[in-house]
Amino acid sequence: MLENIRLSFQGIWSHKLRSILTMLGIIIGIAAIITIVSTIKGTNEQIKENLVGSGNNNVNIRLNQDGYGYELSTYNGLPSGVTPISDELFDSICNTKNVEEASLYVKLSDWGDTVYYNNTSLSSSYIYGIDENYFSTCGYTIYKGRGFHQSDYDKFRKVVIIDENTMNSLFPGENPIDKVIDINNETYTVIGVAKKSDEFKPTINSVDDYYSYMDNSGCALYIPLTSWPNSFYFDTPQSVVVRAANTDVMNKVGKDIATLLNDSVVSSSTYKYKSDSALNDLKSLEDISSSTNTQLIWIASISLLVGGIGVMNIMLVSVKERTREIGLKKAIGARKKRILFQFLTESMVLTSLGGIFGVLCGVGLAQIVSKIASIPVAISIPAAIIAVVFSMVIGIIFGLIPSIQAANLDPIDALRYE
After folding, report:
1. Residue 283 neighbours by CB under 8 Å, 6+ apart
2. SS3 at position 193
3. Which of 361, 355, 360 has its CA nearest to residue 386?
4. With contact defined as beta carbons under 8 Å apart, do 148 and 224 qualify?
5. Does one domain contain both 29 and 68?
6. How many helices (H) and strands (E) would you count in the chain?
7. Is 251 among the domain residues?
8. Domain end position, chosen among 245, 276, 305
9. Backbone phi and psi for residue 276, each to the nearest 5 degrees, phi listed first
10. What residues have CB less than 8 Å from 68, skipping those under 6 apart?
11. Are 61 and 254 spatial neighbours (Cβ–Cβ below 8 Å)?
């Protein structure tokens, strides 16, 4: 085998220009596929970052009714067939594979008649009852005042943390700390202002990205989960938010936790828990682009077919040129198998070199496209390896006919060939 490879390189080197032109179809095809795959992968990763936010791998698992999100209001309590999330169940959620942190919360959408400060009300807001882990799970920091202490939960204190939008709406130009606001006819003291930490801030490049985050826009107020019954029902359906280990496992984590929660729901109930992560939106985008991307790869593969035909043609020429050499080898005892493998190895080496050069050109072309069109790229090592292996297979397939022809030459006719 090593001798065949050495002879193959010797033959390629002795006909450098012809070999380069022969490899050109393979190089173009492999380079095109590597460029397309790298661009697709890079674009998908950027979409993930835009939808999810850098480092913000949060998945919400919420109660649904008949496939639609259950809307909590000030006058409805725990739905039929749904039980509160127990400590044991929450421990199972925290111990789920790829869950880094988890939190329980309740959420109420308000449209202007629940939150007041003096004579000013919020036209729309979200009121959250949160546990001790919510801010760290969702990537919030307290930049004014303080966060919740354990004593706030233990003593059912009526304290509230607001976001920047609420601060600007209710307390323009004022320090909101220690101000008293009314939440559903109960007074709460503002103790802090929260915002997303920088490393959790999502990248918003389009209207679609903004829409994906609309739940996090508007005004938000956070009260201790134990204080929720002061203004609302004691039995309120809870939601779960978890931080997954990375974006690739978000959907799997969401489904696993939804399954755990649904085991606690009465089977005949119309209410079911369902995971809701930004990557669900990404899946539809990937499905739409998948067919287009596949078509592009098939189109690029046509050049590989053309390159393979070129390899077959040049190998047939090589057999003709070396007919007397083949006859001489057979005359001194070379078997058909040896002749066959010699030419097959030369064909495989030729296409393998084309595959390697194609990968290098593809990586370079992907970087150029990235710079010119500002499109992100992510080089796929498995795709590069598969491309080189595929080029070797092309060499075997298209070199087979010339190799068989060489192996079947009659030694006497071959020696007489001029």
Report:
1. 251
2. strand
3. 355
4. yes
5. no
6. 14, 13
7. no
8. 245
9. -140, 95
10. none
11. yes
Copy the structure tokens of residue 16: 């450098």
Distance CA 218, CA 72 (A): 17
Tokens of 87: 């400590």
Q: What is the DSSP letter of 61?
A: E
**Residues 193 and 315 both lie in one domain:** no
Domain count, the chain: 2
Sign of the C-alpha dihedral computed for residues 249, 250, 253 and 258 taken in this order: negative
> Do 45 and 157 fall into the same domain?
no
* Pairwise CA distance, residues 349 & 22, whole Å: 12
User: How far is the C-alpha of 140 from the C-alpha of 200, rounded, in Å?
Assistant: 8
Single out the residue of 349, 396, 327 nearest to residue 8, CA to CA.
Answer: 349
Report the distance separating Cα 133 and Cα 101, nearest Å.
8
pLDDT per residue, tens digit, the chain (418 aa), is 566 677 666 767 777 777 788 788 888 888 888 888 888 777 766 666 665 554 567 888 988 877 667 776 655 666 777 888 889 999 999 999 999 999 999 988 887 778 999 888 888 889 999 999 999 998 899 989 999 999 999 999 999 999 999 999 999 989 999 999 999 889 999 999 998 876 444 444 443 443 444 444 578 999 999 999 888 877 778 899 999 888 778 888 989 999 999 888 877 677 888 887 555 555 555 565 566 667 666 776 777 777 788 888 877 777 777 777 777 776 777 777 777 777 778 888 888 888 889 889 988 888 888 888 777 777 778 878 888 888 888 877 877 777 777 777 666 665 655 5
Q: Indicate the helix (H) or strand (E) that contains 328.
A: helix 323-331
Q: Which residue has the tokens 């032109």?
A: 21
Contacts of 18 (CB under 8 A, 6+ apart): 314
What residues make up the domain containing 377? 2-49+285-416
| Block residue for tokens 């998948």 | 290
